[in-house]
Write a structure and sequence with these properties.
Belongs to the tetraspanin (TM4SF) family. One of its GO terms (cellular component) is adherens junction. This protein is an all-alpha fold and about 170 residues long. The chain is built from 5 helices and no strands.
Length: about 170
C-alpha cells in the first residue's frame, strides 16, 4: 500500500499547507516537522504557493508573498535570536539560489523514509495501543456471557418453583 500511503500523506501535508495560518496548533506542528526533518513544503519549498498568504501571484497583498515559513530556513547555531523573516521572497528564487538560505527538499519523501526506517517502532506502538482494546473486548464479551447465564438461571428458577404461591 505504499502508493496509497504516499498519496494520503501528500493530501494531508498539502491540506495542512493551505490552512497553515488558520490554526496555531497546526502551524506549530508544521514548523516542528519542517525543523525536525530539515525540509520545506510537500514536494518542494514552492508548495507554499498553495497558501493564500505565501502565494506568488501579483494580486496577493500579503507581506509574506513569495515567502516560506521561518521553519524552512537553515539556522545558524551561533545566533541566539531566530530571524522569522528569513524565508522572505524565497519562492521567487531558483532551487540553487534558495538552497543557500532554506531547505529546498520536500517533507513527503523525508516522512515516508522515516516511516520505513521506523516500521518496528510504529508497529510496536500500534500493538501497544491495540492490545488493551482487545483485552477490553474479551472482558466485555465474558461479562455479556455471564449476564446471559444469570438471566437463564433466573428464568429456570421461576419456572421450576415447588411452591406456586412463592
Amino acid at each position: 500500500f505504499v502508493p496509497q500511503a504516499r498519496g494520503k500523506v501528500s493530501e494531508i501535508i498539502n491540506g495542512a499547507i493551505v490552512h497553515y495560518r488558520d490554526d496555531l496548533d497546526l502551524q506549530n506542528l508544521i514548523d516542528f516537522g519542517q525543523k525536525e526533518f530539515s525540509c520545506c513544503g510537500g514536494v518542494s519549498y514552492k508548495d507554499w504557493s498553495q497558501n493564500m498568504y505565501f502565494n506568488c501571484t501579483a494580486t496577493n497583498p500579503s507581506r509574506e508573498r513569495c515567502s516560506v515559513p521561518f521553519s524552512c530556513c537553515l539556522h545558524d547555531t551561533t545566533q541566539a535570536v531566530i530571524n522569522t523573516m528569513c524565508g522572505h521572497g524565497m519562492q521567487a528564487r531558483g532551487y540553487l539560489e534558495a538552497s543557500a538560505f532554506i531547505h529546498t527538499n520536500g517533507c513527503i519523501d523525508k516522512l515516508v523514509n522515516w516511516t520505513h526506517s521506523n516500521l518496528f517502532l510504529l508497529g510496536g506502538i500500534a500493538l501497544g495501543l491495540a492490545l488493551p482494546q482487545l483485552v477490553g473486548i474479551v472482558l466485555a464479551q465474558l461479562l455479556i456471557n455471564q449476564i446471559r447465564d444469570q438471566i437463564k438461571l433466573q428464568l429456570y428458577n421461576q419456572q421450576h418453583r415447588a411452591d406456586p404461591w412463592y
